Amino acid sequence: MPNAFDTHLLARLCDFLRVSPTPWHASHNMAVRLEQAGFERLEETATWQLAPGRRYYVTRNDSSIIAFKLPKGRVETMRMIGAHTDSPGLRLKPNATQHSAGWLQLGVEVYGGALLAPWFDRDLGIAGRVHVRHADGRLEGVLLNVDQPVAMVPSLAIHLDREANNGRAINPQTQMAPVLMQSDNVELAPLLSTWLREQHGFRDAEVVDFELSFYDLQAPSLVGVSQELLASARLDNLLSCFMGLEALLASDGEQGTLFIANDHEEVGSASACGAQGPFLGDVLKRINAQVGGGSEESLIQLIQSSCMISCDNAHALHPNFCDKHDERHGPMINAGPVIKINANQRYATNSATSALFRDVCREAEVPVQAFVTRADMGCGSTIGPITATEIGVPTIDVGVPQWAMHSIRETAGTRDVGYLTDALTVFLNRKVL
């Protein structure tokens, strides 16, 4: 069995995590890699001219992305990998400026199911998408990444809250507003204008609207005496985005292959660019119309002859909380990818798709594990059941085991990165599903 500790792979992963603080940055950085590899950008508003043997990508809302390779002949099946670009965190409110005790603070709302306690006392940057109006009246959306420690959420000293270690609840409205500078009159708008001028050279542009988040500036790192662990923000689910993209780029192109990374999974996927929206369906229809059979029946045949691997991280067995797992289904870090199973269809896995993935792992010489939550605990979900419901494609849910899911800093195994990347590559190259 291969070791799967790949120094170059991990270095690329850490670079990707570091420069992708938001879904917009993640999609942009994946698009850059795709173009470097010869993928042609498509615009959804344009007429597509797809050709067999070519490779393409398309984005929606600048935060979701689909990339695909077409075989040299007619497209009759697609090997698909799905992930999501968003992560839980703190999003700025539209009228974010507030002042208290002589400090400029910014009001936030919690995006997704974030663990709030780890956000205290961290060096925070600000990143996201900003729309500006230029002097000629033209509107433009641009990326902003203030990768400097411009904010923090300070803890309250234990001397002033003796119950702090006894499970005190955190109020996100009153206790989570980060502080930016000592001032009782500075507003957010001039700060945004300054940052946009520094990063984009804008001098007369007016900020019209924005979608901005705070994020932890601590860089990804390899942890442990033997570097067994990878620690970083946004492993859920940029780790899966990275592995899916790596597999697509490494695939031989003989089969029809597709990689999709949706936004908004952490808040239910119900959006135009989320897994519950029509993005994937629209692309498959256009592929079928131009390089497939062209009919509605051939589209159904294409989808039912295909398979989707939904990649989203799994809960690894925690050494301090072993009782939180079923004793027979506690995935170990660095013991291979995890097949995620739930009888109530919170995961899309069934015995047929599970058997396929087990066979893929056998071919890739990769260990494989299974996860089922305790019968007395609830279960999260992924884009897998949503994609299967919306598209009808046979789907399996898998993921890398990790600790501290939805924390500001999460932990996964360094060898598992190589394991799942290898398995996904074999899946994309597989001649028979």
Automatic annotation (TrEMBL):
UniProt EC number: 3.4.11.-
Cellular component GO terms held in the UniProt record: cytoplasm
One example GO MF annotation: aminopeptidase activity
Record key words, sorted: Aminopeptidase, Hydrolase, Metal-binding, Metalloprotease, Protease, Zinc
Domain of life: Bacteria
Keyword set includes Metal-binding: yes
Biological process annotations from GO: proteolysis
InterPro entries: Peptidase_M18 (IPR001948), Peptidase_M18_dom2 (IPR023358)
Classification via SUPFAM superfamilies: Aminopeptidase/glucanase lid domain, Zn-dependent exopeptidases
TM regions (residue ranges): none
Cofactor(s), by name: Zn(2+)
Family recorded in the similarity comment: Belongs to the peptidase M18 family.
PANTHER family, sorted: ASPARTYL AMINOPEPTIDASE
Name under which the protein is recorded: M18 family aminopeptidase
Taxonomic placement: Bacteria, Pseudomonadati, Pseudomonadota, Gammaproteobacteria, Oceanospirillales
